[in-house]
Input
Amino acid sequence: MHRLFASLAVLGVLGCASAPARRFEIGPEPDHEPSRARATPRPAEEAETSAGFVLSDDAIPAEPAAAREDADPYGLAEANAPADDSVLQGNYPPPQGNYPPPQGAPPPPGYPPPQGTYPPPQVVYVKPAPPPFARSRFTLKGGYYSVDDTERLDDGIIIEGTWANFFSPNFATELELGYLDADGKHAGVDTDLWGIPFMFNARLSLPLKKIELYGGAGIGSIWYNIDNSPGGGADGWVAAADTFLGAGIMLNNGIVLGVESKYYWTESVHNLDGGFDSYAVMLTLGFAR
Output
């Protein structure tokens, strides 16, 4: 038994003496970047067998792997590294296109958001020019009325309303509707007359700044009613014509204040022994527009 243990001890010592020796050198290689480990044979004086190899210095990086893992165990430094050098140059966040755009170039799409135009465009309100003359005019007239074609009637009154339509500053047509009333006494007979003249007139005007001179003539008819006491009465239509002259002054807001004289011619009426030939002097108040 003692011999067996002694034999095994001798064999173990011989085996250890014959095993090849290997040396591992750890450290950076200053002139080269880290690369894969390269196995180089040991020098002859260090090699004991042909199977011996020595790892070169460039097999291990300059910074130990354990130190890198301790400093950044999750790899955040590599994950957060910028794609370019914009961060290193002081531009953060990195530029996202050309902004602001070069002068004269259109802005990028969507900028600025549509919020209207500021400052707003200047709006100039232009008042339309007034027409060169009033297109139409309504006139109230009233005054003294006198019949001179018969001795049965004396003085009376007349009221009219006219509507003039101007085709130019110098020419207009005029519609006339009025009321007249007169009475008198002759040879013991009292006579009372009232009538409604309907006339269509042509009017010529001469405007002189604020002053207007005008004149015209027309034709139409007068509906009349005559009452004689004692005696009878009569009514009906009688043909008529008229002429007129007038003047007016233009006031503010299209108001025209003036005076007019007019003369009527009519056919003879049986109950009057004559006609309604008469003249009138009236004040006028016009409203032009």
In short: The radius of gyration is 64 Å. The longest strand covers residues 189-208. The chain has two domains: 23-91, 136-288.
